[in-house]
Amino acid sequence: MIDGTRVVHEVRYPHPPERVWRALTDPTELSAWLMPNDFTAEEGARFRLDARPDHLEPFDCEVLEMDPPRRLRTRWVVGGEPTTVTFELRADDGGTVLRVEHEGLPPSERPKFDGGWGAKFTIDLRDVLDGGRDPAAATRDATGLTHHPAYVSSR
What we know:
By secondary structure, this protein is of the alpha+beta class. It has one domain (about 1-140): Alpha-D-Glucose-1,6-Bisphosphate, Chain A, domain 4 (2-Layer Sandwich), CATH 3.30.530. Helices cover about 25% and strands about 35% of the residues. The chain is built from 3 helices and 9 strands. The strands form 2 sheets. A 7-stranded antiparallel sheet has the order 1-2-7-6-5-4-3, covered by helices on one side. A two-stranded antiparallel ribbon has the order 8-9. The mean pLDDT is about 95.
C-alpha cells in the first residue's frame, strides 16, 4: 500500500526468520524472487539490482544496516533519487512476519513499486520459500550479476 511517501507491505510466511533472512540476503535466492543482482551481505557493501527492461539501468544500491535475522536496510537509487528499502522480520507463532518499507520514491514510481512489492511477496518470494522455485538454477554472468530463469520483470 502507498502510505504518504512510502510503499509498505507486510506478509506472513510459515517459515522461521532465519529461512526468510536467507532469501533476503543470499544472491542466488534474491535472483530467484526479486531480480538479478550482485548482492553482498555486508554493511557498507555496494551492489546492483537489474530491473531491465522496466528500468533503463540497474539500480545502484548499498547495504546501510544489517541485524540478522531481524532487519536489513538498504539504499537504492531509483530514477536518480536515493530511496531507502527496509526489511523487518518478526517471529510469529512458528513463522515470520516480513515487512518492507520503501521510502523516498518519486510520486510517479510509487504505484509501480507498490504493485511490484505486492507480487514479489505474495508470488515470487513465497515460491522460493515453499520450494517451488529452486535458487540453485541461478547463474552468474560476465558482469557479476546472478540471474535466475524464473525472473519476471514488471512485477
